[in-house]
Design goal:
With about 110 residues, the protein is mainly α. The chain has helices spanning about 5-20, 35, 45-80, 85-105. It is elongated, with a radius of gyration of 19 Å. The two termini are about 20 Å apart.
Length: about 110
């Protein structure tokens, strides 16, 4: 990711939530949601479409995080209890494999 990309994702989600909160009859004009505007035509045909995609992706990533973070935390704890690089590498390899398996099951 580019420097500051996490801020872009955060603003994008905030704008998407704001769009979702608008009454359906509200006319969205250019500039109201500039970060979402930038994706019109690629991510979706309208700002409302882009907002829906952003929120759907955010929900998917949150579900993946909830499922994989315990694996990461367990590996981190296990690494603190070992003394060799070989042991650390083994723990990391196993954790990464479990995380990828979990992600594949979810997608």
């Amino acid at each position: 990711d580019l420097p500051g990309q996490d801020l872009v994702y955060s603003v994008k989600r905030e704008q998407a939530l704001a769009v979702r909160a608008l009454p359906i009859q509200t006319v969205i004009t250019p500039g109201m949601f500039p970060v979402l505007d930038a994706e019109v035509g690629t991510t979706g045909e309208t700002v409302r479409d882009v907002a829906q995609v952003v929120l759907t992706r955010a929900a998917a990533w949150m579900a993946i995080t909830v499922a994989t973070d315990p694996i990461r935390l367990h590996a981190k704890s296990a690494m603190a209890a070992v003394t060799t690089q070989t042991e650390i590498d083994g723990i990391a390899t196993a954790a990464i494999a479990r995380m990828w398996a979990t992600v594949r099951e979810m997608t």
